[in-house]
Design goal:
Nitrilase/N-carbamoyl-D-aminoacid amidohydrolase; 44% helix; alpha/beta; 6-stranded mixed beta sheet; globular
């Protein structure tokens, strides 16, 4: 059966090959939230490999044509995957439809088309070293493991829905993040899910390989579950004692940056922060820290003394408010006269901001425009309301304030990148992610974002507190498990004692080195069998 199916796919030609690649890529998106149906990859990856097998040509430029044919199949697979997995980004352009609505069709199609070029490059690279036989699976995993690694770094990086997240859909296999991180998990996932393609070969001359390749994949999958079960069985680290309240105000996105609704927005935040939820949580004074989401209010706090007074009235001695906010610094020699930041501020009982962090990894086209002058000249501007876009902060160092353990701040998009901790700086006790996913409504986007945040907690061995404007706010332990959460569009609070942390994980100590070694190992094995 596998052999007949493989032959039928290999023999597809022309537009049918590209269409089949797109359909296989689109089906692969089912492995990501909200579905998390990773077994689909056991079918779609072999289809992709058989399409690369079918990239054959004849004539003078046969080799180049084969590589281009494989690249075309890779682009089709990638376009289908990213279109099906990222269609929800269009919602951000409809919040202010009068200004940005016309861009929505272009964003929904051009972004997947651009990201698909990584897959085209991966397929082309694989075809360069391709040789019929079961061990071409190693070459495929090498090429696409390298592609997924590069996607996380090139042009500021965008590792959204990397294939390693298919393994993160299960609490047990998610624990691999503590060993090899997202990029290593992607390499492993690609090999495991591609391995059934070896069964599509005829028995002649391939009997051993048809057993070894999927057999090794099965063993690796079992070992992954075993390691995960072991890590999940470890004793719970003692909690840190700090009492935290997470506020999810669920301010509609069309209101969030509306200056005329500023008082209403601030009032909602103040009221939620001080509600009684139990005898032990009768108001803000029962907590060491209250956390508000990204850009919690639509004004610059430094320009609003009445708002500062309201915050001072809310915050008692012994409590701090940690909030997302926008701020600026006057810089006379800057062309705009100032630098503007998407920030986290820590505010004490006097209303004074005693610490802050400025976002370092900004969202292209969302928070700043690449080639700003040219793009603005032809009518483009970024989605955020900071004139000229945000400026990037200088560093992401742990924030230390009295009364609570130090934390590592991550604003929205920053939580999608592995390796968030700078090993040259003191280690934080917990991760804080403030975000505003209301741009995307009730779509897969916020759910995918949450899974990525959970894996950051596993990689670092640290708990995470996540405050989202409209959800999904969550308290995540150092094994990536959700301790408490608020669903999308709920207006409520989470009251929790800060979970405990593990010692630095192997991934924290080794970084991407294991991923690079895995990629190199796959290449050497594939090259060895190619020479035979």
């Amino acid at each position: 059966m596998f052999q007949a199916l493989a032959q039928g796919i290999m023999l597809q030609w022309g537009w049918r090959r590209i269409l089949l690649a797109m359909l296989a890529g689109a089906a692969s998106a089912l492995a990501m939230p909200p579905f998390g149906f990773f077994p689909v990859l056991f079918f779609t990856f072999p289809v992709f490999i058989w399409l690369v097998d079918g990239a054959v040509a004849s004539g003078t430029h046969r080799r180049r044509q084969e590589i281009l044919s494989a690249a075309a199949a890779g682009w089709g697979f990638g376009f289908g995957y990213f279109l099906a997995g990222l269609w929800w980004i269009g919602g951000a352009f409809l919040v202010d439809a009068e200004t940005f609505g016309w861009l929505m069709p272009f964003a929904v199609t051009l972004m997947p088309a651009g990201l698909a070029l990584f897959f085209a490059g991966g397929a082309a690279l694989a075809r360069v070293f391709w040789r019929p036989g079961p061990f071409r699976i190693f070459v495929f995993a090498f090429a696409f493991g390298l592609e997924e690694l590069l996607r996380g770094y090139v042009l500021t990086g965008f590792p959204w829905n990397a294939f390693g997240y298919a393994l993160a859909a299960n609490n047990a296999t998610m624990q691999l993040g503590a060993l090899i991180g997202l990029h290593g998990m992607s390499v492993l996932a690609i090999y495991i899910f591609a391995s059934p393609a070896a069964l599509g070969l005829s028995d002649a001359g391939h009997t051993r390989g048809r057993v070894i390749v999927p057999g090794l994949a099965a063993a690796l999958l079992v070992m992954s579950f075993g390691y995960g079960a072991y890590r999940l069985s470890l004793a719970e680290p003692p909690d840190m004692g700090a009492r935290i309240r997470v506020v999810q105000p669920s301010i509609p996105q069309e209101q969030k940056f509306n200056q005329q609704k500023a008082s209403e927005t601030l009032s909602a935040l103040l009221t939620l922060s001080d509600i009684a939820t139990s005898p032990e949580a009768s108001g803000v004074g029962d907590f060491d820290a209250v956390i508000w989401p990204e850009s919690a209010f639509p004004f610059y706090l430094q320009e609003e003394p009445a708002a500062v007074a309201a915050l001072a009235a809310l915050i008692p001695d012994g409590t701090v408010l940690i909030t997302g906010l926008q701020r600026y610094e006057t810089v006379p020699d800057n062309p705009r006269g100032y630098l503007g930041y998407n920030s986290i501020g820590v505010i004490d009982t006097s209303g004074t901001m005693i610490a802050h962090y400025d976002k370092t990894h900004l969202v292209p086209f969302g928070e700043y425009l690449p080639f700003q002058g040219f793009m603005e000249a032809i009518g483009f501007r970024q989605l955020t309301n900071m004139p000229g876009g945000f400026d990037a902060g200088e560093s992401r160092a742990p924030v230390s304030v009295p009364g609570i353990p130090s934390f590592l701040p991550l604003i929205c998009y920053e939580a999608i990148f592995p390796g968030v901790v700078d090993r040259d700086l003191p280690r934080a006790a917990w991760l804080l992610n403030v975000t505003n996913d209301a741009w995307y409504g009730d779509t897969p986007g916020p759910r995918q974002h949450l899974l990525q945040a959970r894996l950051r907690a596993v990689e670092e061995g640290l708990p995470m507190i996540r405050a989202a404007n409209n959800g999904i706010s969550a308290v995540i332990d150092s094994r990536g498990r959700i301790v408490a959460f608020l669903p999308l569009n709920a207006r409520n609070v989470i009251d929790v004692t800060l979970p405990g942390a593990f010692a630095p994980t192997f991934y924290v100590l080794a970084g991407i080195l294991p991923s690079l070694m895995m990629i190199l190992g796959l290449f050497l094995v594939g090259l060895f069998w190619r020479q035979r």
